[in-house]
Design goal:
Chain lengths: 163, 207
């Protein structure tokens, strides 16, 4: 009679996936066949070892792992522009341009809204020696007589002629 | 500019779209949200934490360059898991698998642990934490003798109890391919362990 060994069943499905009827068949055969008994023992031992191994195999990502991955990505894949590339310097100057725009905006606001230091009419801006100043320094041309007014106007010219 | 909280509540598809459009904060949120899962899967391939981290970083760099291809048909988590598995397998493909583990290569702790299990009817239940670490180390050494795709497969099927369908979703492999690979890797793994047990058992009997 041809002996059918059960190692094919053990290795084919794995002990964990055998149906009760299949496991019974394997155990009955192993009770009479030394080779298959040895194979069954080794298969059970292997399965036990692998389960213990599965329990002990653990690995947790270290802290800041994602930061390290992103740093590597930037280093490896983000486009590197040549040193003299216009785009590189344009990108690098974003901060400086931004600061300049901000300063210009602040100065503009100050010019528009801050009170002027000298907003009242001040005669001191006129030349002290002009004829107009002479006339205007009098309260009004109407307060002067025609002769006095002519004298004021022409006295300047006379002074200039003397010089 | 968006607030950080806004990214935290954003849907996967929106995050992917924003990130594909060059929004770094959206991509940072993707990394933050899915890195525990990526680390968990990478840890099935590498024993050293530094290698797990390197692989996880590689996964996110790939994801960044391929985000435009993500159409939102499946979950972003599933999409990232597939990238993780493929990336880890590709990294390991260049390294040669270790030769088969023999009893003489076992450390004192592993050897002692194996003897004890054999004398106590191979019980793997109710072990101390130290025992579990020794067992896990022994498994790593056996897994290192397998190709990376097969190593991952047996860990998922036998260690995690995942179904063939679940593994197909994780990896993008067909179910037929998984079944064929699973048969081969179960046999290889069982035979490796069986050889170790037989050699140890033989020594015990002789001793």
């Amino acid at each position: 009679m041809k002996v059918v060994h059960v190692t094919e069943i053990i290795d084919g499905k794995g002990l964990g996936a055998l149906a009760d009827s299949e496991l019974e068949l394997v155990e009955v055969h192993a009770a009479e066949c030394a080779d298959c008994a040895e194979a069954l023992f080794a298969a059970r031992f292997t399965q036990g070892l692998l389960r213990v191994h599965a329990e002990t195999v653990t690995a947790e990502p270290p802290a800041f792992f994602e930061t390290r991955v992103l740093a590597t990505i930037r280093e490896k894949y983000v486009e590197r522009l040549p040193f003299w590339s216009f785009r590189r310097w344009w990108q690098a100057s974003y901060g400086m341009v931004g600061a300049m725009v901000l300063i210009a905006a602040v100065l503009g606001m100050l010019t528009l809204f801050a009170p002027a230091a000298n907003d009242q009419g001040d005669m001191s801006s006129y030349s002290l020696y002009s004829t107009e100043a002479d006339v205007l320094n009098k309260r009004s041309a109407r307060d002067l007589s025609r002769e006095q007014l002519l004298e004021v106007i022409y006295s300047g010219k006379k002074d200039q002629g003397k010089r | 500019m968006r607030l950080a909280d806004e990214y935290g509540t954003m849907s996967e598809i929106d995050l992917a779209r924003q990130a594909a459009g060059g929004d770094e904060s959206a991509f940072a949120e993707i990394v933050k949200r899915f890195s525990p899962r990526v680390f968990s899967y990478s840890a099935r391939f590498f024993k050293r934490h530094s290698l797990v981290e390197e692989a996880a970083q590689e996964v996110f760099l790939k994801a960044y360059t391929q985000l435009a291809n993500y159409e939102g048909r499946g979950s972003l988590e599933g999409w990232l898991t597939r990238i993780t598995v493929t990336t880890c397998i590709n990294i390991l493909r260049s390294t040669k698998p270790q030769s088969e583990l023999t009893v003489s290569e076992l450390s004192d702790d592993e050897s002692e642990w194996l003897e004890e299990r054999l004398m106590n009817a191979a019980s793997l239940d109710h072990q101390t934490h130290e025992d579990k670490l020794i067992a896990a180390d022994l498994v790593w050494r056996v897994l290192e003798t397998l190709p990376p795709d097969e190593s991952f497969l047996i860990q998922m099927l036998e260690g995690e109890g995942a179904t063939v369908k679940e593994v197909a979703r994780m990896t993008g492999w067909s179910e037929a391919k998984i079944k064929t690979k699973a048969f081969r890797v179960r046999r290889r793994m069982r035979e490796s362990i069986q050889k170790l047990l037989n050699a140890k058992d033989g020594r015990l009997r002789k001793g």
